[in-house]
Amino acid sequence: MQKVKRAYYYLFYKLYKHYENSSEPWWSDFKASASIGALEIWLILSILNYFLMITGETIGNLNIWQPSVFIPFILLFLLHYIAFIRTDIWKEYIKEFDQLSKEKNKKGGTITWLIIIFIIINTILSYYLLFQRAKQNQTGPYAPEIVAKERREDSLQKAQQIENLKKIYGEGSKK
Questions:
Q1: Residue 29's CB: how many other CB atoms inside 10 A?
Q2: How far apart are CA 45 and CA 51, in angstroms?
Q3: Could you tell me the CA-to-CA distances from 109 to 54, 79, 112 in Å, in that order?
Q4: Burial, 56: exposed, middle or buried (Cβ in 10 Å; 0-12, 13-18, 19+)?
Q5: Which of 13, 70, 116, 121 is most deeply packed, by most CB within 10 A?
Q6: Which residue from 13, 40, 42 is spatially nearest to 29, judged by alpha carbons?
Q7: Among candidates 47, 40, 42, 31, which has minimal Cα distance to 8?
Q8: pTM
Q9: Distances in Å between the alpha carbon of 146 and those of 11, 131, 149?
């Protein structure tokens, strides 16, 4: 558990240092914490997408008050509260990680950015697979009644465009 905690704070450290080295180095702690929160939410959403694919449920059957959705977000909030808001222990970790050798810091930074990229790509992939399943099962935006409605609307628009063109070129009055 201690290693997971250190890894979590190291992720925070790398994001904090990234924001500190930017042209606007203010609120770096808040930006780093918000970035971790976004990554965690994306990770939870991708897991939820995989859960939906495995169980065969649709997203329309889920709402924020269901335990499978509500509990992870509460745990996420509590984790952030304990790690960053309640105490300033993250400042001690910043000092500790600043003491690491340049080689260890570079290796850790590479691993950190690979994890960040993995989470982003995983989220995109989970949505892609979810939409592919919806297309295959003809659910969601690919449901037959929705597709038929869109086709009807497209046909009506085309018919109106043809009628407007006939009026413009005077073909509607000729017989």
A1: 18
A2: 10
A3: 34, 23, 5
A4: exposed
A5: 13
A6: 13
A7: 40
A8: 0.70
A9: 44, 15, 5
pLDDT at 111 over 70: yes
Q: In this structure, what token pair is assigned to residue 133?
A: 């399943």
Answer for the pair 112, 11: CB distance below 8 angstroms, yes or no.
Answer: yes
**From CA 40, how far away is CA 66, in angstroms rounded?**
19
**Can you tell me the distance from the alpha carbon of 164 to that of 167, in angstroms, rounded to the nearest whole number?**
5
Which bin fits 29, alpha (ψ -120 to 50), beta or left (φ > 0)?
alpha
Per-domain boundaries in the chain? 2-141, 143-175
Please give the mean pLDDT across all residues of the chain.
Answer: 84
Secondary structure class of 75 (helix, strand, coil): helix
pLDDT given at position 122: 96
Contact 8, 83 (CB under 8 A): yes
Pair 146, 153: CB distance under 8 Å: no
Is residue 11 a contact partner of residue 95, using CB atoms and an 8 Å limit?
no
